[in-house]
Amino acid sequence: MKINKEKFEICLANNQLLFNDFCKKSGISKSSMRFALSGTRNTRPQTIGRIAETLGVSVEEIILKEGE
Q1: Domain 5-61 part of CATH 1.10.260.40
Q2: Which of 22, 23, 55, 64 is a Cys-bridge partner for 2, taking CB atoms 3.0 to 4.6 Å apart?
Q3: Which of 53, 54, 49, 62 is nearest to 25 (CA)?
Q4: Given CA atoms 22, 24, 28, 46 in this order, what sign does their dihedral have?
């Protein structure tokens, strides 16, 4: 699965979080988040679940769907 970077950034804004603050709150390293957002690698489902939980959204709201 891949993260939709635009949707992720919207969720950050809705939660009034900076990228660094999100990484601290989620426990996900900055480098792992950069890889997840770049789309160069698939992100593990557990990591996507943690991202969604930290942002207070469902996984479906932040993943990149086919055709996007």
Answers
A1: yes
A2: 64
A3: 54
A4: negative
Q: Are 64 and 2 in contact (CB under 8 A)?
A: yes
Q: What is the pLDDT along the chain (68 residues), one digit of tens a residue?
A: 899 999 999 999 999 999 999 999 999 999 999 999 998 888 899 999 999 999 999 999 999 887 76
Q: Where along the chain do its domains lie?
A: 5-61
Rounded Cα distance between 59 and 66, Å, is 15
